[in-house]
Every structure is written in C-alpha cells, then in structure tokens.
Amino acid sequence: MAFEDSLSAAQKVSLQQSRRQRLRTRLATFPWWLVLILLLIVGTLLLITNSPTYNEAFVTIRSGMIVTLYITLISYAISLLIGLFTGLGRVSSSILSQNIATFYVELMRGIPMLVLIFFIALVMVPGVVNFLALLGAKLIELGLTTIGNPLAGLSNRSISMSVRAVIALSLTYGAYSAEIFRAGIQSVAKGQMEAARSQGMSHGQAMRNVVLPQAIRNVLPAIGNDFISMLKDSSLVSILAVRDITQIARLYAGHSFRYPEAYTTLSVMYLTMTLLLSMLVKLLERRLRNNG
Amino acid sequence: MANLTDEKLVEVKSINKWFGDLQALDDVSLDVQSGKVMVIIGPSGSGKSTLLRCINYLETPTNGQVWFNGERLTSDQRELNRHRAEIGMVFQSFNLYAHLTILENITLALKVVKKIKQKDAESIAIEQLKKVGIADKADKLPSQISGGQQQRAAIARALAMRPKLMLFDEPTSALDPEMIKEVLDVMMMLAKEGITMIIVTHEMGFARAAADEVIFMDNGRIVEKNTPDGLFNQPTSDRTKLFLSQILHK
Ligand SMILES: Nc1ncnc2c1ncn2[C@@H]1O[C@H](COP(=O)(O)OP(=O)(O)O)[C@@H](O)[C@H]1O
Ligand SMILES: [Mg+2]
C-alpha cells in the first residue's frame, strides 16, 4: 500500500490498467472448456449416486469395463508391434518390404474402420481358418499328424468374436502406428545413421541402437494419443456382439428403454477415461520436452 | 603386414561418382601411406566430402576401386563393417548420438561392433576422453556441452575403436572461432602420434603444420597435389592460385 501511495495519479491509472489487462489475459487463457467437461462428469456422477435408474445403468455398464480394457490393451500392444515393423518396412531400402508395407498401410487407411471390422471378423478370419483346416487335413493325409491334427481341428467356432475383434483392431491400428513410426524414424537426423555405419555397425545394429531409440522418443506423444483413439474405437467391436461397455449399454437400453440413462452414463465413462489419459499424455510430453 | 611404413594404407584408383547426371568425382586417384597426414582443400561443391565418403564406402563409387589395408572394398556389408570399424570418421556436424551420454557415445560401438565388455569399454572411453581433455563431461548429453567439446568427443569416439585411419570432414567448420583451436590442437597431437589421417579443412595454418601432402580439388578432380610448402608457396595451376588467394584474404 505504501508503495502505491507514493505513485502519482497517472502512474496509478496505468498500474490499474496493466492489472486489468493481466486479468483479461488470464480469463482468456483459462481452460473454461475443462470446467464445463468436469461439470458434465460431476453432474452425471451425482445422477449415478442419487438416481436409482442411473445407478442401475452404471452398475450394469460397468461390467463391460474389463472387456473394453483388455480389448483395448491387447489390440494396442499388437498394433504397436505391427506398426513398428511396418514402419521399418516403409523406410527400408528393400523394394519388396517397401511395397508390402505400403500396400498394407494404404489398404487399411482406405477402408472405413467399421467395414474393416466386419470384413476381418466375418470374411478374413473364417477364410484363414478354413484354409488352415484344409491344410491340416492334407497334412494328415501325408502322415504329418502332429502338425495336421491341431490344424484340422480348427473351426470358426473356436475363434471367439472378441479374438476377432482384437485381430481387426490390431490390423487397422497397426497401419496408423506404422505411419507414426515411419515419421519418427525419418525425423532422426541422417547423420546419426551415418555415424553409426561409419563405426562399423550394420544397418540393423544402427537402427536398434541409434535411430529407433530417438525415433520412439520423438513419437511417444503421438503413440499415446493413439491409445486414446483405440480406447474410443474399441466401442466399434460392439457390432460383433462383443460385450464391451458399449454393447452392454446398447443391450441395457434396448431392454429397459432407458436411453438417456444408458447413453449418458456410457458417454461420460468414455469421456472420463479419455480426459485422464490425455492429461497423462500431456504430462509425458512436457517431461520429454524438458529432458531433451 | 611386413613393412608398415611404406605400405599404402589407402589406395583410390580412378574413381568416378555420379549423382544422377551430376558428376561429383571425376577420375580421382590417390594413395596414403601409413602414418601420413593428407589434407584436402578446395571450394565448396568440389567433391571433397564425396571423396572422403567413398573411402569408407558411405558413398559407393560409380566405378573405380578403393583399397584399404591391402583389401579391395566391395559392397559386401560384412566386409564393409569390418573395414569401417578400422576407419574413424569425424563429421562437420559432429553427429554424436543425441540420446546417449558422451561416455555411452564412445562405448556403444565398442560393445556392439567390437564385442568389448561394458567395464572394459568404459575404461577405454574414459582414457580417450582424458586424451582429448573432456573426461569431466563423460556423463553429459551432447546437447549439454559446447561445439568444440562435442567435436572432441566425436574424435574420442572414433579413436576408441583403435582405427588404422582417421577421416575428418571439415571438423572445425561448424565451430565458433574460439573453439576451433581446441579441436585443431587435438588433431595436431594425433598427427604427431603418427596416426594416418585424411582431412578436409579450410584451416591453412593447420594444413601447413600437420600435412605431409596437400591435395587441391576442383570440379570433382584433383587439380594439384604437393607438399604443403610446395602447394601453398608455388601453386602451379591458376585455379589453385585463385582459390588460395580467396581463402587467404577472407
Ligand atoms: N547425396 C547427394 N545427392 C546428390 N548430389 C550430391 C550428393 N552429395 C553431394 N552431391 C553433389 O556433389 C557435389 C560435390 O559435393 P561434396 O562432395 O559435398 O562437395 P564438397 O564437400 O567439396 O563441398 C556437389 O555438387 C553436391 O551438390
Ligand atoms: Mg563437404
């Protein structure tokens, strides 16, 4: 106060103005959207705790959580592996690897995910299973019963829909993460590979020890965001009648005709998970930036 | 292996290098004996880097031959990796492995290429870092030390492999003036130790003091080859004279 008293009137005005300005930028940059989203979440939470119908919807849908999580996690892990190898294929010097990798990526990216899930689960998997069973039968004819028997025993019924869902999601997301890995590898300066090769490392050794560690670091945020997308897109497997949270919500809504309860709860469950995950990704991003 | 002193460690026999329809090297031949220092000078774009990169086959010559240590280099990857482990290369932009500490930069190839155990690799690395005077930076990342220190670390990384030959591609061109000397001092020390080196540089004072032979390149060709005194004091070609006058008046 003593400090302000010593200022002239003009200075006081300008001090007030700059304060007002600071307040204005603070208000402008404040994440109001986040407050709104949190209000939505808290509001739904209140409904769940206070309204018996919302509570019932939540408890029912929650039982699909394990399926949603394991389908997301397993498909994500497999898709990262596929993506890594396909990404390496995309930047490979071998024309054959390049073309196979690009063929796969373009195929997956050119077809809607919903259609791919139908195709992979209902056409590709049965096709492959029938082929393997046929192969098994032929092998038994040739006397190779140890390999033939398990193959011949394969039937489409032995491949559950949730396994097919995992295959479908892994294959589609494999193509997306391949592009992320490709960009990551290309983001590493050429001199890094050259220095490694000049020391006598093979291409593979240089890739593993020098280029990939840097590439993966560069794409960690993108890979994290992919996980969030995967969590959301895992809801598509409900069309294969896999009992994830979306499918259970659909069934519940269909039986009880409580559409608002089922779909509000379901939406807010996804929203909560993705919000938490994207905060995690941002944190990771900031840590990477500070360390590098 | 009999008499290393007058053995040709490197022989380049009439190599040409084309990038599409641009000829970067035009019938270049040279040889370097063990223990000698060769300096290559010439204007930018004259093919100096390409020549250096053909010597360890980072670029494959379009035709012609490169011999190292009595063996002809081919595109056989296994053989190439074996030869490259004996040819150290130092780049203009250092090219230290950005994700590894200085110590790890040195131990990586020792472990991966030479199959040396972690502990032994570390003691070799420390020894080399002491030699170039940055042992205290062992645990830093490349981005945490100065350009001059990075280049000295890159030299230590190359030396740790116990190379028969060292290639330097404008090792001081990316450095601030006050850091050039610390790198040249290290290179001078290596020259005195009798390490065979081929150096592309614009540091004429260094060339004069360190080189046994200086080559002037222009337009992908070797225009002139002489002792440093001969080349700097009595250049025979007009292009050499012009280049020297330009570089000395900068
Ligand atoms: N990878 C490349 N692809 C195409 N052109 C190149 C490549 N590397 C070098 N060149 C060309 O070859 C010529 C010689 O280049 P370089 O050997 O780098 O010259 P210097 O090192 O003497 O400056 C230049 O014209 C350059 O543009
Ligand atoms: Mg150059």
Question: Can you characterise this structure?
Answer:
- Chain B: Belongs to the ABC transporter superfamily.
- The complex is a heterodimer of chains A (292) and B (250).
- Chain A is mainly α.
- Chain A is 84% helix and 0% strand.
- Chain A has a domain at 70-242: MetI-like (MetI-like fold), CATH 1.10.3720.
- Chain A contains 13 helices and no strands.
- Chain A is flat.
- By secondary structure, chain B is α/β, with parallel strands linked by helices.
- Chain B is globular.
- The relative contact order of chain B is 0.17.
- Bound molecules: adenosine-5'-diphosphate (ADP) and magnesium ion.
- The site of magnesium ion has 4 residues of chain B, from helix 1.
Instruction: Tell me the major beta sheet of chain B.
Output: 6 strands, mixed
Q: State the shape of chain B.
A: globular
Oligomeric state of the chains? heterodimer
CATH topology of the largest domain in chain B: Rossmann fold
Unreliable sequence segments of chain B: 1-5
- Domain count of chain B: the total is 2
Instruction: Let me know the average pLDDT of chain B.
Output: 94
**CATH topology (level 3) name of the domain at 70-242 in chain A:** MetI-like fold
Return the CATH architecture of the domain at 70-242 in chain A: Orthogonal Bundle
| Major beta-sheet overview of chain A | none
Number of strands of chain A: 0
Structural class of chain B: alpha/beta
Structural class by helix and strand composition of chain A: mainly alpha
Helix content of chain A: over 70%
Strand fraction of chain B: 25-35%
The overall strand count of chain B is 10
The count of helical stretches of chain A stands at: 13
Give the count of helical stretches of chain B: 9
Distance between the termini of chain A: 44 Å
The CATH class name of the domain at 70-242 in chain A reads Mainly Alpha
Strand content of chain A: under 5%
Transmembrane segments (chain A): 27-48, 68-89, 110-135, 262-284
Protein name (chain A): Amino acid ABC transporter membrane protein (PAAT family)
Domain ABC transmembrane type-1 (chain A): 65-281
GO biological process, one term (chain A): amino acid transport
